[in-house]
Amino acid sequence: MYWVALVVGKYHVSLMRSLSGPASTRSSHAPFDVKLSHDTDHWTVFKGLVPFVWPKGRADLRRNVVLAVIVLVLAKLVTIAVPIIFKEVTDVLTGDATGKSALSAMSLAIGASGLILGYATLRVLMMALNQIRDVLFTRVGQNAVRQLNNRTFRHLHRLSLRFHLERRTGGLSRVIERAARGVELILRMGVLQMVPTALELVLVCGLLTFYFDWTYAAIIALTVAAYMAFTFKASEWRIAIRREMNDSDNEATTKAVDSLLNFETVKYFGNEELETKRFDSAMARYEKAAIKTYYSLGVLNSGQALIFTIGMGLVMWMTAVGVMAGTNTIGDFVMLNTMMIQLYMPLNFLGTVYREIKQALVDLETMFGLLKESPEIADKLGAQPLQVADGSIRFDDVSFFYDQERQILRDVSFDVPAGQMVAIVGPSGAGKSTISRILFRFYDIASGSVTIDGQNIRDVTQQSLRAAIGVVPQDTVLFNDTIYYNILYGRPDATKAEVEAASRLAQIDHFIEILPEGYNTMVGERGLKLSGGEKQRVAIARTILKGPPILMLDEATSALDSHTEKEIQDALDLVAKDRTTLVIAHRLSTIVHADKILVLDKGKIAETGTHGELISKDGLYASLWNRQRQAEKAREELASALEEAERSGALPAGDRKLLD
């Protein structure tokens, strides 16, 4: 592995730049903005792979590595023996074998037959040993791919919400896909191809010195050196083209995924042609880079063939001269030719291996950049699990900003007493949803403190904090799996009876029962096969199953029609009973019964009180309430007019759904 790292890692590969984020955060949390230095680039990759090739606690895999190396050496010894046997057969048949004149025809036939049988046996053994070597190392390589993928996947879940809000799903998935393929390629080709080829080159030079003289070995060594230098130089040229291909591939995939995820929006605006043009522009860039790649490949292959042919032709000419002078036999000439052809095959493949490894390094750069990215939010050393007794929440002089030039919360203080419901309302952009993200500790605050039962959430483990809080978000996103799986996600170890009980409390059990496949019904990508109300009920059932002492309702009914909102609100009231509940509200009609209402405006609490108290103050809350009441009244009047139009026949029956 050291030889592989020394040869391949000699050349620097810069880390691809990708997304950029807010100026205030990218300095220390810039996974795609960090460039590996010239001195650490190759070691970052190879040192990172060593623990996966030689895994701790896996004696079986380490044994496979040792056996694979032993078999590798045996295979190369057999490979070198093949042309020697071929030489002996040739010398016997051409009359150059020592003592041949003293041999009878029968002895000669037996000797030649034995040598031919030995030659055939060695060729079969050579192939068998190579296959055994590959089989032994396959377990190691595949385990390395699995473990590195798991490590990357786990690490991505540890990274901050800010990172994932800034990422491009399509581009990131392609990076991980190519990197996983690159890991296997580096391990398989680096260990099973480059190391054996280096060993074979050493053995060939030794045999040439033994059978001929040092000039033969020197010529072959110089030929291989020139071959590899040309290969490395040309490959570096091709790496830039490969990077351009990767960038355009990422761009095309990102645009395709983004467009398909927003399929309905594309249809709403009739912009299929626009999306096709955007995708085609990225593919055109990819096409141009692909043409350059094949052009450069032709140059590389031609140069490699020319260099090796010159070296091989020179030593064969020297041997032919020796044959004519009587200092060499025909067998020597055949052996040299066979040996050079055997060397050329892996050496020619070595050029491909080097190019592929360098390209794999490009693909691995971003993955290792991801693994080096430190989570923005991390448990402090010695953090203890959150101990929830009552579930009271306190925000004390909390200030927060996503960007230093744009502060979101300013010295916000409030309490949510145990078992009570506190609602937060305010204009759009006031910072309501930010409060929920702070409570979950998706972000750390700039100043102040947030406590639950007197425990600062920065001092407890994130896992225990989030386990204590249940959330029903405004936009419920479900896994592309069954309804049962999505409800069970609230508590994966729950029984089927508990899942069904949660469904009844969420008032979704009747809907599930009428479905042909019941709980086994697939919900589709992001739950698109379900209506908004049905998805919200699944989210409520999931939260009921989780059974948290603290509940967060983040505008859970704002996107629903009035009828569905009433049904969902009833279910939410049932869930919130006897729980400390923080409600982020858009429709004020849903929180009139809250124990306390906080009115947030421009990052500060402008008003507090019950619904009645705030109405009597005739302030911001009263203004918001009156505007919503006017909008609801206008809606009711429109509904009445549509109903009258239906009765009179001026409007087809059923078109009142336009109101929703």
Q: What's the short version?
A:
This protein has 660 residues and is α/β, with parallel strands linked by helices. The chain contains 19 helices and ten strands.
In words, what does this structure look like?
The chain is of the alpha/beta class and 660 residues long. It has 2 domains: 41-372, ABC transporter transmembrane region fold; 389-450 and 578-660, P-loop containing nucleotide triphosphate hydrolases (Rossmann fold), CATH 3.40.50. Helix content is 63%, strand content 9%. It has 19 helices and 10 strands. The chain has helices at 2-8, 41-53, 59-94, 105-158, 161-166, 169-211, 214-261, 263-269, 272-325, 330-372, 432-439, 462-467, 483-488, 496-505, 509-514, 532-546, 562-576, 611-617, 620-648; strands at residues 393-403, 406-416, 421-425, 447-452, 455-456, 469-472, 550-554, 580-584, 596-601, 604-609. Strand 1 (393-403) and strand 2 (406-416) form a beta hairpin. It is elongated. Mean pLDDT is 78; it is low at 1-40, 98-104 and 656-660.
